[in-house]
Amino acid sequence: MRRRLLQSLVPMVIVLAIVAAVPLANFIATGASRTLFLSRSNDADWFATMAEGPLQSGDIASLRELAVRYHQLYNTPVFVVDVDSRVIATSRSGVNIAEPDLATALSSTLAGRLPAEPPAMWPWKSGEMVVARPVVNNGRVLGAAVLRVPTERARDQVQNGLLLLLAGLIVAIVAVVIGIVRPVSRWVLRPINDLDNATHQVTRGALDTRVSTDGRAPELRRLGDSFNSMALSLHQARQREREFVADASHQLRTPLTSARIHIEGLSRLSPTARFALSDIDRLGRIVQRLSRLAGSDRPGDAEGNEEPLDLAQAIKERLVGWKAVYAADDLELIIGEMVPGGVASELEVDDILDVLLDNASKYGAPPVEVSVLRDGTEVVLSVRDHGLGLGSRDLKKVGERFWRSAHHREMPGTGLGLAIVRSEAARVGGRVVARPPIGGGLVIEVRVPLIDDYDL
């Protein structure tokens, strides 16, 4: 936004500088023209005085000699005409008094009037300046003395003056932009920048962030008040959420402890009871996480300090209950290679395995094989069934929310299982891969980053 503001202010400064520079440039050109005209007018007056006697006596030799000497000294041609516009003395031959500028100057001078000052001299124009003065005796015009003044040097001076003006203009624009426009733009945008910084703080979880509204424009004051109200509402909502989570986790501890005591006694008699016991333990861990979350001030503070989890060991423990479930349905569950590998402790291994084995039993065909392997920097949980599998087009859609293949749309389900698995894997930097194995069926791989410093 600051760049857009500068893009609108800087052209305005440039336009104002150009508007101010045009009169100055005209003053430079006009001043040089007037200075040259006045200096040569004095010489023309002197020649008019010197030509008064020769024009009356007819002896023009001395007048011609003065004109030649002046021409050689100042490089300025001079000629004298009588009242009938006939050239009687000149410093060079070939004078054409019919030229427009000469004719205009002579007609005015011989009529007893002083010609007007010449226009401003600009570097891109050329030509000589005509300076004429009447030769007068007792109020009667006898003729005129005319100088053809070269203007190259004066135009060079004007050009140098314009270049200096341009340089000063550029320096002035830069100074105004740096000294005025930029500070003004910062001052104008400071409330917006403060609001932007406060918004970023809120997105990072600092819901107690507020912006100052003192001394601001009414519109910005209303915007700041709206932001503060929104941040307060979010803070209160987060506070209520934390209180609810804390209360819920506290209320759940007692019944979970009681249920675990009862189920622990049954686990010695039934594998299914041991499976239920692991679910109770998982609920206990969830309650513990909720309790830590309730005491966290920033998102993400509740996790990240636990020891890495051995994925192979966690899968083997969870498979104890699933073997009993598969056996009850006359399904074969094969436990393949289990290579130890550390993964992030917050990975919900039980949820992921439950979804994969439930899908394999409903949509696939036995035997179902589960394995944990290492592949470079990843630990791979692989679940394979021997059903019909999926086509290449359907393989690309595995993990999309509410998606189900055409072969399984009549079967019960929501189409969210693999989407949950993909979300859980992504939460720890992992991914889900579906591929057709050799021999038919379907393999679902959950690939999560290996924690290198895990102590096997």
UniProtKB/TrEMBL annotation:
Transmembrane segments: 161-181
Keywords attached to this entry: ATP-binding, Cell membrane, Hydrolase, Kinase, Magnesium, Manganese, Membrane, Nucleotide-binding, Phosphoprotein, Protein phosphatase, Stress response, Transferase, Transmembrane, Transmembrane helix, Two-component regulatory system, Virulence
Topology relative to the membrane: Multi-pass membrane protein
Cofactor(s) named in the record: Mn(2+); Mg(2+)
EC number: 2.7.13.3
Main localization category: membrane
Gene Ontology molecular function: any one: kinase activity
Reactions catalysed according to its record: ATP + protein L-histidine = ADP + protein N-phospho-L-histidine
Occurrences of domain Histidine kinase (ranges): 247-452
Subcellular location: Cell membrane
All residue ranges annotated as the HAMP domain in the record: 186-239
SUPFAM superfamilies named among the record's database cross-references: ATPase domain of HSP90 chaperone/DNA topoisomerase II/histidine kinase (SSF55874), HAMP domain-like (SSF158472), Homodimeric domain of signal transducing histidine kinase (SSF47384)
Protein name, UniProt field: Signal transduction histidine-protein kinase/phosphatase MprB
